[in-house]
Design goal:
Elements lengths: L13 H5 L3 H9 L10 H7 L23 E3 L6 E3 L3 E5 L2 E4 L4
Antiparallel strand pairs: 1-2, 3-4
Protein name: DUF4193 domain-containing protein
InterPro entries: DUF4193
Pfam family, one: DUF4193
Length: 100
């Protein structure tokens, strides 16, 4: 039966492991492993705040332009494209070149 492998243990490059002596490898295998836990990056990013990044008092305004006569809305990606990007009309639904 083979020894179980700890995939979370830190690894050393192959160049370093070639130079190890047998005694050093035995000593390292019996040494206690550290209980370090990986930090979840998404969780850490939620608590990180950039200086001057408070935009709660800002109001954003965007001018919405209606779809023009030479444009169409793709039935797959729902983006508005120019008529030159029309690839097909499947069952009466227009599809852009990127989605076809």
């Amino acid at each position: 039966m083979s020894k179980p492998i700890d995939y979370d243990a830190p690894r050393r490059p192959a160049v370093e492991t070639e130079d190890d002596s047998l005694e050093e490898l035995k000593a390292r295998s019996t040494a206690p492993q550290s209980a370090a836990v990986d930090v979840d990056e998404a969780e850490a990013a939620e608590t990180f705040e950039l200086p001057g990044a408070d935009l709660s008092g800002e109001e954003l305004t965007v001018a919405v332009v209606p779809m023009q006569s030479d444009e169409f809305r793709c039935s797959r990606c729902y983006l508005v494209h120019h008529r030159s990007q029309l690839a097909a009309q499947l069952d009466g639904q227009e599809v852009c070149r990127e989605c076809s």
